[in-house]
């Protein structure tokens, strides 16, 4: 819809106060399934919503239409972008729209690693006045941290995914072993299972020079109390003792304990998943999508024999799970701010998050939703993820992430291939400092 037509609709509607919109959002969330009568389009504020395409029992378009039907003040036009598997195309499409500063789209979804870029460029509206600190406690803390840039909330949590540990329940039972809480426990259990001949591989992960390698690195480093960037995001920390020790551990899984095959250095998610669901491995680090495959007899040899748990940690550390998922943003140039906030409030409400979980299989970012009885009945696996997501850790938060991630990938990959872990990580850290302008 043209800007002229949108302006005409607004002038015909008259001003709508923030309090009225936010009050309406609560009613909208509760009325989403009731089929409330739809007002004429000419009586509504028109906004647009751009999002990557997601698949499930319902489409994103159907969820948006439920919002349109739930209230009579705002009408949302949904603009579908490619699926997250084509993230580069999604990113390019969003940037091309936002850089024009025309106000379209009013609301958008974004990969969690784009948040700092969008905020740093001034494209994302700060949301603090609409979602104060008290409201943010309703979300996983790691998600709120990932949605915050320069101490301002510039995105609102939508759905979460993270790394997790898959394990063979039957193999652990046969070995008399518990689910490992530390990396040392995982190594000893994996070695014992391999020695018994009941599994070819002890532990599978993703060492390919790609974004997933950054995710694996974030997890193992954070589980040792380390980080890739300094707390203020202005310098690198990849060359720290804790980071070096963590990446050395990954190298050792291949070359010392030999619980991981050297093939992991060329594997991303799917190549690492296949031996596990094929029955050849005791442990696997991967994302939530693996569980449904593991329970499908058509593609799995381990149906009913797979458990999931938080990833292990080093002694004295805490489990860390690298954050994935898409989050909501509001265009800083929107001409319909209150309407955008109303829609955003509805989309991130407990009722709508439950709807996304049940209909699209998207994991909620509100811990309370995991306690819903309907979710436990229809998506029992998802209820297990609450403990995993508590340790969710964002990737480096910086508007220069696109450059920083390449430096991390290159440095960590070289360290894992050569074994010169300290030297390669220190060199990569120098490159990160140069990118950040230190």
From TrEMBL:
One of its GO terms (biological process) is maltose transport. GO terms for molecular function: maltose binding. The keyword Coiled coil does not apply. Keywords: Periplasm, Signal, Transport. InterPro entries: SBP (IPR006059), TAT_signal (IPR006311). CDD domains: PBP2_TMBP. GO terms for cellular component: ATP-binding cassette (ABC) transporter complex, substrate-binding subunit-containing. SUPFAM superfamilies: Periplasmic binding protein-like II (SSF53850). It holds the Pfam family SBP_bac_1. Signal peptide: none annotated. Belongs to the bacterial solute-binding protein 1 family. PANTHER family: MALTOSE-BINDING PERIPLASMIC PROTEIN (PTHR30061), MALTOSE_MALTODEXTRIN-BINDING PERIPLASMIC PROTEIN (PTHR30061:SF50). This is ABC transporter substrate-binding protein. The lineage of its organism: Bacteria, Pseudomonadati, Pseudomonadota, Alphaproteobacteria, Hyphomicrobiales.
């Amino acid at each position: 819809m043209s800007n002229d037509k949108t302006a005409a609709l607004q002038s015909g509607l008259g001003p709508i106060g923030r309090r009225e919109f936010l009050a309406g959002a609560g009613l909208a969330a509760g009325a989403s399934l009731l089929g409330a009568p739809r007002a004429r389009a000419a009586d509504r504020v028109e906004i647009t919503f751009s999002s990557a395409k997601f698949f499930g029992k319902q489409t994103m378009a159907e969820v948006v239409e439920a919002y349109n039907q739930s209230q009579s003040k705002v009408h949302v036009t949904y603009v579908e972008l490619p699926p997250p598997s084509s993230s580069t195309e999604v990113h390019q499409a969003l940037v091309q729209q936002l850089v024009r500063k025309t106000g379209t789209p009013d609301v958008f979804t974004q990969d969690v690693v784009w948040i700092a870029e969008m905020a740093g460029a001034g494209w994302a509206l700060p949301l603090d006045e609409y979602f104060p600190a008290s409201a943010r406690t309703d979300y996983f803390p790691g998600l709120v941290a990932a949605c915050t840039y320069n101490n301002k909330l510039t995105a609102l949590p939508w759905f979460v995914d993270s790394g997790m540990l898959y394990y063979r329940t039957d193999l652990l039972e046969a070995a008399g072993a518990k689910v490992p809480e530390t990396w040392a426990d995982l190594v000893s259990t994996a070695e014992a299972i391999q020695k018994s001949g009941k599994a070819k591989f002890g532990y599978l992960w993703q060492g390919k020079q790609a974004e997933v390698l950054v995710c694996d690195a974030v997890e193992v480093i954070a589980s040792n109390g380390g980080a890739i960037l300094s707390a203020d995001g202005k310098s690198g920390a990849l060359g720290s003792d804790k980071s070096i020790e963590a990446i050395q551990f990954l190298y050792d899984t291949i070359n010392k304990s030999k619980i991981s095959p050297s093939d992991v250095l060329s594997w991303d998610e799917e190549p690492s998943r296949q031996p596990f669901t094929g029955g050849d491995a005791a442990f696997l680090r991967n994302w939530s999508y693996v569980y449904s495959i593991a329970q499908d007899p058509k593609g799995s040899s381990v149906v009913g024999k797979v458990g999931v748990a938080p990833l292990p940690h080093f002694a004295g550390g805490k489990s860390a799970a690298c954050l994935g998922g898409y989050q909501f943003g509001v265009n800083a140039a929107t001409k319909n701010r209150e309407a955008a906030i109303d829609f955003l409030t509805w989309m991130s409400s407990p009722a709508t998050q439950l709807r996304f979980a049940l209909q699209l299989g998207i994991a909620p970012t509100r811990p309370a939703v995991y306690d819903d009885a309907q979710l436990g009945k229809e998506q029992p696996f998802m209820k297990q993820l609450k403990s995993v997501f508590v340790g969710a850790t964002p990737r480096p938060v910086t508007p220069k992430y696109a450059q920083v991630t390449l430096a991390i990938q290159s440095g960590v990959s070289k360290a894992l291939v050569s074994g010169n872990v300290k030297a390669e990580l220190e060199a990569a850290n120098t490159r990160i400092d140069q990118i950040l302008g230190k």
